[in-house]
Write a structure and sequence with these properties.
The complex is a heterodimer of chains A (about 180) and B (about 290). Chain A contains 7 helices and no strands. Chain A has one domain. The longest helix of chain A is centred in the last third of the chain and has 26 residues. The termini of chain B are far apart. Classes of the chains: A mainly alpha (about 180), B alpha+beta (about 290).
Chain lengths: ~180, ~290
Amino acid sequence: MNVYLKNILRFCIIILLQVLILNKITLRWWNEPSGFPIFIPYVYPLFILLLPFETPVWALLIMGFLLGVSIDSFMNTAGMHAFATILLAYLRTNVLSALLPRNLSEYAGQQPSIKSMGWMPFLVYSSFLIVLHHLVFFTIELWNFSNIGFLMLKVLASSVTSMLFIIVYLLLFTKQSTSRI
Amino acid sequence: MRNFIFFIRRFFNLILFLALEIVCVILIEHTNTLQGNDIVSSANTVSGIVYKKQSDVVYYFGLRKMNDSLLNENAILRQKIDRINSSVDTLKDSLVHKKIATADTTTHIVKYADYLYRTARVVNNSTNASDNYITINRGSKDGISKNMAVISGTGVVGRVEHVSAHFASILSVLSAKQRISAKLKNGTNGSVIWDEKSPDVLTMVDVQQDVPLKKGDSVFTSNYSLYFPPDILIGTVVKTQALKKNGLQLIYLQSSTNFHNLQYVYVIENKMAGEKKQLEDSSASKK
């Protein structure tokens, strides 16, 4: 499938998945009256993470902005998701070139995935950026530094959950090259 | 100038990044004031349409829960209406009683709240046997007991016949065994039975021929019934047939309850039924 078409499709699917399904899931890790923060798993940054290796930074930034604003318009958070997503899009190239053994231009026609990078590098790449995204987003959302512990707990818990959802998404939607007979 | 263009080309990504972040910050700032809320919000067209479609779909999954809650609310409202209708026993306001109740003027107002409504869902239903039974998902653990009256939102359904811990089976009006005390709009009393022909048609007997009737007249439960509250719709008159031998007329009724698609019913407990029945039995045995 054409790479543009594929990514446009993925853009729509990820937004719908995030808005219609994941936003309805409010998770809490255990029930306590004092309240472990309830949170929502955010899977939509995966769209930026999965764009092809050779995507230029300006395109990443603009797509990050579009993605963030779309999510914002659904969640009434005007700009908060966009802010975090643009940061993630800006740092993506640097993180990738730090993690990969060869120059990025040598991976023409490929996209970051478990298959092309291997489990460990991909998990490091995605979890680093997801934690950063969540940290920035929740900081802007709360905008209250009197309770850093609460913020950190929220960031940690929701990044772990988001990562679980991302791994599930990848396992579900990655084409298996070897078919078992 | 050349240096400036060079600078822009060199740091184009960083500049774009900063510009977009500034746009975001401006958006966030706007949201925090009351007026700026509508630049990026779910009130705009695209996300509005998506949310509308979603709620259209999800709506169906919530219908059962919504039905249950509406049903419970209806039961409460019915109970309240009953309380208003029967709270003041006007007979006790008569002269004889007023003389007795001198010290406390409030004693002649008696709160009755005779009837207790419980909601239930129909889990099994038959309309084509000669004695039709309906099974509901409430039993003795929910306070259902034998002989309680059962009505639907539109009219009379039947009477509880057997009770287990979690279920109860109702002998519906569509049964030869069942006889319901009924009255016409003008107060004429009679009985409604079923002639085992069609599940939509009931018959009313014991009405004198000279009682004027039109097609479409309503028939209600009477005040004499031991279990049914008064003034619950049984059906509407379809046609009448004069019986020559005893001067009575046979009235065919269109049943107000649709027994084919019965889903929810109310089970009514008459708290005074036991006392009333005991009294009537004792006076009958003395004869």
